[in-house]
Specification:
By secondary structure, the protein is mainly alpha-helical. It is 45% helix and 7% strand. A hairpin with a 2-residue loop joins strand 1 and strand 2. The longest helix has 15 residues, at 49-63.
């Protein structure tokens, strides 16, 4: 396993999204770095999955307002 600097993978994903001109919902930048939200390196805890869902819904609504109506 490579010992990569913190944030390296997320930065690669951001670069590829820009290069390919695809939408990126960057939860790494949207969520506070805290054990309150993060269960492990790749997952939020169950209580805060609703926060993640709200962030994703909001971003989808921003990009596709006719298709994603927020309630």
């Amino acid at each position: 396993v490579l010992d990569l600097p913190e944030g390296f993978k997320n930065n690669v994903v951001r670069e590829v999204a820009l290069e390919k001109k695809v939408i990126l919902i960057d939860l790494d930048k949207s969520l506070e770095k805290s054990s309150k939200y993060i269960y492990d390196v790749g997952h939020v805890n169950s209580a805060d999955s609703e926060i993640v869902a709200a962030i994703i819904a909001s971003k989808l609504h921003d990009y596709f307002p006719r298709n994603f109506v927020l309630k």
